[in-house]
Design goal:
This protein has 1 helix and 12 strands; from the N terminus they run ββββαββββββββ. It has 125 residues and is mainly beta.
Length: 125
């Protein structure tokens, strides 16, 4: 069983650098999110067509419907995460400088371990 990890700022929220194709993006790892999210401008750069809609419960408790795309494989350390569905969402209000939010659907075939003291996220295959 291989063990791979990515670093984030110790004691902070888990924001990591991931790859999609040859480009790198900052992503928040949010195991409380049922689906992943991507900024619209990143989706446009990647040429991702809209493929449907997803009902979500926003942070304010309101129900919303967001358009969705299929994210391509994501490089997470030495692991390649399978393509997953993502809602289009403006993530700038979070103030984290992220372009992606990776929810539990991005890690469907993997186990995650968080070490907040060391600032590492481990992906166990």
């Amino acid at each position: 069983m291989s063990r791979n990890w990515l670093r984030f700022t110790s004691g902070d929220v888990p924001v990591v650098s991931v790859r999609i194709g040859a480009r790198r993006y900052f992503a928040l790892i949010d195991t409380g999110a049922a689906i992943s999210f991507v900024m619209s401008d990143v989706s446009l750069k990647l040429g991702l067509p809209k493929e449907g809609f997803q009902n979500i419960v926003a942070l304010n408790g309101q129900f919303e419907t967001v358009p969705t795309v299929l994210l391509p494989a994501i490089g997470f350390g030495d692991v390649e995460l399978a393509p997953c569905r993502a809602g289009l969402r403006n993530l700038k209000p979070l103030g984290l400088g992220i372009e992606l939010l990776l929810g539990v659907n991005a890690f469907a075939a993997h186990c995650l371990q968080f070490d907040f003291r060391e600032g590492r996220i481990y992906v166990v295959e």
